[in-house]
Amino acid sequence: MNATKVAVLAGGLSMEREVSLRSGRRVADALGDRGHDVARLDLDDQLVASLARGQYEIAYLTLHGKAGEDGAVQSLLELLGQPYTGPDAVSSLLAWDKAVAKGLFQRAEVATPQWMTLSSDAVRDMGAAAALDHVLERLGSPVVVKPSQGGAALGVGLVSEPAQLAPALMAAFSFHDVVLLERFVHGTEVAVSIVAGEPLPPVEAVPRTGRYDFSARYTHGATEYFAPARLDSQVLDACVEVSAKAWDLLGCRDVSRADLMVDGDGQPWLLEFDTCPGMTETSLLPTAATAAGMTFPDLCEQVLQSAMSRIHAPLRH
Ligand SMILES: Nc1ncnc2c1ncn2[C@@H]1O[C@H](COP(=O)(O)OP(=O)(O)O)[C@@H](O)[C@H]1O
Ligand SMILES: [Mg+2]
Questions:
Q1: What is the 92 CA–ligand 1 centroid distance (Å)?
Q2: Which residues surround ligand 2, an ion (CB under 5 A)?
Q3: What is the pTM of this model?
């Protein structure tokens, strides 16, 4: 395998900066061990100059949170003609906004929990606070309240009483001005990672506290993972099938991860798609890769080669 000149992009100003730096360090070390020529770049005002100076063949994105996943950095890299790993700017943006992604899933008959959205404009300027009673009536109880754009379970709340709704909304509004109110699915938390179009074994996450929140995700030992998930093989197949369908709907490439809840009847409900999945020691994608018999450097190499194949593909006229 030829050595490739790679810039690993990590950090940025999102709430998930530290997680991204951890992902970036691991990926850079793994690709370096594989003999690639690797530099690490932060997402700051020097990025364009650093990319121009380095003349990298490819940028490997390990950015989590807004700038890395909402298409902003992808658009910039496209403008620069800099090849990069992961879905393009449009796919990133579609997946980043959970309400937009859920709309696409629903139109394609991919089961996603029933939901509604509420914008801070509607609350501030249109008297929506008086309509909050309809939320639990329409969606049932409990309801998950989460920012439509966001990640790492930040700003996510669970509401079972009408009085809890307003504070949960305010907490979610502090992350994004459109909030998703979604029917709660009681069941098993499952993630399906897909690398170069090939689904890896579904991973089940069982947080010790019962809530798969920020600290359950990134604290060593706070969550137990089972790969493959402890579900019937038909249910595992159904999880893979909906995830692959959503990958196509969003137009993903190289690597992405679907987050699902499987209810007591074995029905998978797609929550969201993560277009730049975590690569830390406790992250779901590396756990899935291990279950598939892939080492961490193998995983990084596969993502890299998937993106590199676009550069080497013959031009279409
Ligand atoms: N509708 C739901 N039913 C049950 N649990 C949910 C639901 N929505 C979110 N959760 C829980 O909250 C976590 C974060 O939600 P998710 O939609 O994946 O957003 P993100 O990971 O981007 O913060 C999930 O991993 C799951 O544990
Ligand atoms: Mg998620």
A1: 18
A2: 259
A3: 0.94
